[in-house]
């Protein structure tokens, strides 16, 4: 706080004023007290810090490279054809060949019908694949075209049928056996009867009979080279099979070893004693 002191003097030049003051020269002291108010302005500076968070999204691109499996491993399944009255089901098992790495399918079919044989038919073919037994096992191979194949079929195999029945096979023709009569007195005629069996194979029955009761007869094979078969009566009979090479075959028991021995027979003679 401070004071300002004003001294006013009435001079003659301010006549009116002085007159009011009875013409006297006077001094008026005016004291003014001025109180100084000090205002302190506090400026609050608000600093706003903007933090920019930069979020970087890392997109992990997984580069998946699909390698096609070996083509010869991707053959599909085959159809078990069961449309025939004699069709029976079979097993088909797929494994990997240890050498090639390719898939192989093992087909196995077995019949339970007594006296019947099984055969396989591929893609509806009419030619049977058979072992002439009640069980057959075959292998199919998956190739690079994703197709099943075997050595018997040129086309891709997608259907297989197993048939159980009495098979009539293509016959091997065997000619008649030559009948020898080396002994004009005792050599006899030989009857030859050919029969087709149920499996299609051929069988030959040879028979010789002595006209005299109480005598015996003997069959001599290949002029004695392959032995002889004697009888205990005046009649004798033997059975031969038609071999794959077109020659009749006779199976006998070896007297020394006791084992069966098969010989091809082209000549026969029957003698009575």
From TrEMBL:
The keyword Signal applies. It comes from the Eukaryota. Keywords: Signal. Residues 41-62 are annotated as: Disordered. Residues 72-162, 174-270 form the C6 domain. Residues 1-20 form the signal peptide. This is C6 domain-containing protein.
